[in-house]
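Hi, does anyone understand the following?
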Amino acid sequence: MTEHDNNTDDAFAEGPLKATRQPEIKDGKRREKRLDRLRLQGFWPLYAAFVLLAWRAPLDEDRVGHMVLRFLGMGVTLLGVGVRIWSMGYLLKKEELATAGPYGRTRNPLYVGTWLIGCGLALNTAWPFNAAVLLIYNVMFFSIYRAQIRIEEEMLSSIYGEPYEAYCRNVPRFFPSIAPWRTGAVSRFSLVRAFKNRAWEPILGVVILWAAQLSMWSFWKPLMDGKPWAEVWQHFLAGGWIGP
């Protein structure tokens, strides 16, 4: 065991590492405002595309593979929501360094959850648009969030110092490792803490976007094609919300 390892174990020996210093980030506010503008200008049009391009129900796809892709998207979205709730149940912002649960596998599980939600919503648009939207979403996501993660790493490094550097050496920045990193006593998952961290937001966001996608293929596209409202409504009640 190296001296660095001993120092890290000592830092975590009495439980999760507590924040004892204020963050110091060069031009942090200016950089974050710029990223906020990029997120607003880039992702909201993409969310609109997730809805507008969901003009065909999953079971209305021409090929089985395309149907499977649509349902896969729904599963990926639910996985992303679960990852975000799991992550929020370990998070005590501005109080301690989260290293337990998903934070032992990736340093940014909240962003992993966000990424999965977006990928799932993109896959749930109609073929072949889902492939194109998925590609655009990934390019934008990793361009913007890579910069956001760098800002947060600077902040956490200024607060926690060498123990955080050791954490970074042992835990991947984004894509999770199979085996978790664990040292010292760590916090346990708390559903109450998760909802204090606004775990309801991803749930509500997904419900709204799914409802918008469903209304697109169930109502708005048939109405735009000239079908009467009564016929569209009857088709919806007969199962048209998921297919022909």
DSSP finds nine helices and no strands in the chain. The radius of gyration is 22 Å.
